[in-house]
Amino acid sequence: MAEAAALALLRWYLEQGIDAAIGARPVDRYRGETAAGAQAPGPPAMAPATPAAALPTAGAMAEPAAGGMVEPIVADARDLAALRRMLADFEACPLRRTATNLVFADGVPGAPVMLIGEAPGAEEDRQGLPFVGASGQLLDRMLASIGLSRQRDVYITNILPWRPPGNRKPTAAETTMCIPFLRRHIELAAPAVLVFLGGTAAQALLGVSEGITRLRGRWLDCPAAGRTIPALATFHPAFLLRTPAAKRQAWSDLLALKARLGGLELG
Ligand code: URA
After folding, report:
1. Which helix (H) or strand (E) holds 146?
2. Would you say residue 84 lies in a domain?
3. Among 71, 75, 100, 154, which lies 20 to 30 A Cα-Cα from 53?
């Protein structure tokens, strides 16, 4: 009986998106306990590839304005490997403490198309790769439908490189903190076109508040590193899994991408 109740509770947790324990023991906040007394030991200190003094600490980065502090530092990343190391050493984003892995990118660096999603989910967090869960499988099929493949033609990343607990939406502070890394990521990957998967990615990079229904389906200008990159916003594959009727519009977006790539001199 107790077992059945415990199982039902676990199932309910899963349905609510609570699928990872982030402390060694639960914290009963109704009794005034603090997480400090209950938390598991933090992750082991990372060996910094970037001089420790150069990277902001958690305390220094508590404000959303922290994005501005990161910009001069990310400029020092000379290539994608250096940027990845910089993120791996970046202690200030609290998400890294609840995530299992840093999810940096997948696909082909330097590919003509760079796809940008929102944030890793559970499977991405486990594997340390973007879009490898159910929505990633749909994304691969969508790409294949216009003759593109992750192994040959596209480069994929997210707004956030760590999974938000329970797959919640990134907060404004998290986005502000991580976006300078992403802008440098785009600069170093130097794609011919960007594709935003979902409204969160489009809004964060374009600095607009319009929803995906208004943004999708037309070529937009994304300012990046002193140049403007043509960008297409489309529905997030996770949304398409929940809303198959929207696949029709997604298909028209894919055709727009295919046409644009056909007109580019890709070297
Ligand atoms: N959803 C995203 O936005 N990114 C991923 O990597 C996986 C799911």
Report:
1. none
2. yes
3. 100
Whether ligand 1 lies within 6 angstroms of the CB of 119 is answered as yes
Tokens of 239: 């949304």
Q: How many domains does the chain have?
A: 1
CATH of the domain at 189: 3.40.470.10
Q: Which two tokens stand for residue 10?
A: 């676990």
pLDDT of the residue at 30: 66
- Residue 117 Cβ contacting ligand 1 at under 6 Å: yes
What residues have CB less than 8 Å from 254, skipping those under 6 apart?
A: 142, 145, 146, 234
Strand partners, 228: 223
Ligand 1 atom nearest residue 124's Cα? 6
Joined tokens for residue 47: 């060996």
Local structure of 256: helix, strand or coil: helix
Can you tell me whether residue 61 is helix, strand or coil?
coil
Angle between helix 247-262 and helix 134-145 axes, rounded to 10 deg: 50
pLDDT tens readout for residues 130-140:
999 999 999 99
Ligand 1 centroid, distance to 225 Cα (angstroms):
24
Q: What do you get for the CA distance between the two ends of the chain, in Å?
A: 65
Ligand 1 centre distance from Cα of residue 199 (Å): 12
pTM to 2 decimal places:
0.78
Query: Tens digit of pLDDT for each residue in 48-67?
Result: 444 444 555 554 444 444 55
Name the residue of 158, 167, 235 whose CB sits within 8 Å of the most ligand 1 atoms, as the mutation to test its pocket: 158
DSSP 118: S
Domain span at 197: 60-262
